[in-house]
What we know:
Number of strands: 3
Radius of gyration: 53 Å
Oligomer: single chain
Largest sheet: 3 strands, antiparallel
Helix content: over 70%
Amino acid sequence: MRANYQSHKPEAALQRAHEFISVGKQRDALQSLHDLIKKQWSQIYEQIMLKYVELCVNLRNSTLAKDGLYQYKILTQQVAVKSLETVLETFLTLAEQKTLEAQKSSIEKIEEIDDLDVADAPENLLLSFVSGAVPQDRMDRTVLSPWLRFQWDTFRNCLDLLRNNVYVEQIYHHIARQSFAFCLQYQRRNEFRKLSDMLRLHLTQVQKAQQAQTIPAHAIKLTNIESLTLMLETRLCQLDTAINMELWQEAYKSAEDLHNLMQIGKDKDKKIAKPSSYVNYYDKIALVFWKGGNTLFHAASLLQKFNIYKDMKKQFTGEEATDQATRVLLATLSIPDGAENPSILTKHLDIEEQHVANTRILSALLRMPIIPTRNGILKEIARLNIPEIAAPEAFKLYKCIENDFDPLHIAVNVQEMLLEIEQLGEKLGYSEYGQYSNSIKQTVAAKIVKQISSIYESITLERLSEIIPFFNRMQLEQFLVDICKQHSVSAHIDHRQNCIYFGPEDAILASELESENGNISEISKIKNQVSSVYSRLQDVHLDIDQSSVKELQEKLARQIKIYLTHKDGDFERILARRKKIEHYKESTEQMKQEKLLQVQMLANKQEEKRRTEEYKKLMEENKQNEYRRKLAEQEEIKRRVVAERMQKQKSHPLYEMLVKELGEEAVEKMDLEQFIIEKRNLLDKERKEQQNRMLQQEKKFDYNVRAVHLEEMLVWKELSDERQASAPALFDQYETRRIDEEMFKSTREIA
């Protein structure tokens, strides 16, 4: 009973684990500790768990680690949370150290490891099976992946273990931030997405638990200010990590999560979400909108950030105010006209309602009651005097774009001002100023084209390139096509005349300048009125000047005569040229087909040859692998037979003698059966020799005994003769003495 009690003591279990480790049986040590940690907690359990997690890391056994930590959490979550925190930190630190060591010793690139939740690909397993012995480089490449996978499982299991538990809430958020650092350090994009989804699921479970009729005592309550603060800090860390990893979709989702938590906190206590948190939030979400190409909501985010800055600080002046105002002003100027309207693709797909719903969601993220527009933001920044607070260079740019009407020179002026603003940003250390240059140039170019279209009916591309020096010829044409697709202007490019025509009559694409019933806009009406006046004035001029009419008629008659003279020849020449072109196309196409066919045939032959060689190589490798496999099986069978024989022969009396004589290692390596046979023969020979020696000794002993007997017989004869000679005298003496004694007894009796 005493021994059984001692075996269940934690100290004894820990000692047994150390003994198992000392003889190389780590799995047995782990199992012995695992059986013990299900009992009531005591101080020694922390040392046991530290050794337990160390063994789990060494063996990369995440399953037993999860089970053991779960049992330990049950023991400690109410009485020793600090101990659980120590064990988890040690566990994560050991896993991280192993991963760093594997990274140093591995030649594998982290980017080559796609998904840690997916095991080795089937083709890699097949290749390793076909190739037999694994090459050294392939072994090196398998060093890092398992440790990365183990560390990822470690973070995931710990978070899943600690979720929705108020006792271990601090540890949960600490490990979540460590997980974000792991994803950032090793650029684990897939794992970051899964981690974000996991935290989102945990928050959903917390919210569902609040609606239950009976809430467990250990459940997290969203009415707790400390819990909400921890969640906000973790979501901010998540948003920062997504931005640093350039996962903009995940950053947007993280911003949504952060906004929802802020709304929950605002409903509970307005002091939970501090203004500095909102400033950080708007700064991050502005970056997300900028990377997503949404300049409208980017500017709206910066405007909200400016308002909070202004409310936070009673005296919002100086360099900080100038910087914030400059960023807001530049972001607003980079918004193109009509940015709040749905795109042409949205209209064609008839998903305008979805577009409106999405913009409302984005507005809610910015805590704006209405959907922002470019004009609305311009009015708001004018109301807040942001242009006057901003840097003079930015204010000058604002006046040039929004107030001046000079389409022929505005682009050159804007280009110079943008260069000054970029230099100012480099001087002050604000690199964000330069990022708005391209967007502002696009906006200014669109405005110039609109203004030119209201003045000119057509303009050459060379002249337009001089007016808008932002683009080369190809970029300019692409820009014109884009703004026509966006229905900003109606125009089409005439490459033969090397010019661009404005107006709905010549436009290839329909424009918002035309209404749905076909009526043209006010600008088009003015153009048509001017064209009509010009045509009538020209008719009046021809009526007054008859000589000009006569010259025009003569010129027309000459051109008709020339046309009729050369009509047939030109027609035949055009037909011949068309036939020649068609013949050239047919011959070229035929040559292409023949060449393609030859290339295809050559490729097929090479592919067939490659497949044949690869098949032969695989067959040869399979034969070699089969031979090696059979050889290995035979060796394994021999080894098992020898092991079984050794197990049987350990009870043989000669085994101990051989071990004492040669040592256990030497005995295990030799052919024990043959050695025992030889040893037995040798012993038989020695036994026979011993028997012969014994026979010789027996014969010699017999001779000695016989000789002794012969000598004894002579002595005994002499003694016998002496006794026979002295016997009568001795008898007489005896009789005399007997008679005397009898006479003495008789006399004494009588007396």
